[in-house]
Amino acid sequence: MPTPARVAAFVAMVEAGQYVEAIEAFYAEDASMQENLGRTVTGRAALVENEKAALRRNDIVARKGSTVLVDGDHVAIRWVFEMTDDTRTTRVLDEIAWQRWEGDRIVEERFYYDPGQMR
Question: What is the pLDDT of residues 22-76, one digit of tens each?
Fold first, then answer.
């Protein structure tokens, strides 16, 4: 079960734009991520590569003030990101991350959002 300080450190790193570093520091070696009902990506190395690819496609800025709920090994975070692509089109992604932690590491994460936001 993560401590409140550990979750706060994770949120602070993401809100500071240190997305790859957050994966490296907070996700288990065999962690998985899933976008809505999309494919599941498994393994920290694959998660890092997936994040790097997203950062090549977009400038991503996390808004400050994320809402966080912690219940034992489960954490829910409301993230709001501004994503600007190479055509300088900015989209706002408002999503909920549902995480399962083991100790101080995220082992499973699923994002829930309206895909219409990405049009």
Answer: 999 999 999 999 999 899 999 999 999 999 999 999 999 999 999 999 999 999 9
Predicted pLDDT at 116: 86
Q: How far is CA 51 from CA 3, 55, 71, in A?
A: 25, 6, 27
Among candidate residues 78, 70, 77, 63, the one with its CA nearest the CA of residue 104: 70
Domains of the chain: 4-118 (3.10.450.50)
- Count CA atoms within 13 Å of residue 12 on its CB side: 6
- Per DSSP, the residues of 32-97 read EEEETTSPEEESHHHHHHHHHHHHHHEEEEEPS--EEEEETTEEEEEEEEEEEETT--EEEEEEEE
Looking at residue 65, the DSSP 8-state letter turns out to be: -
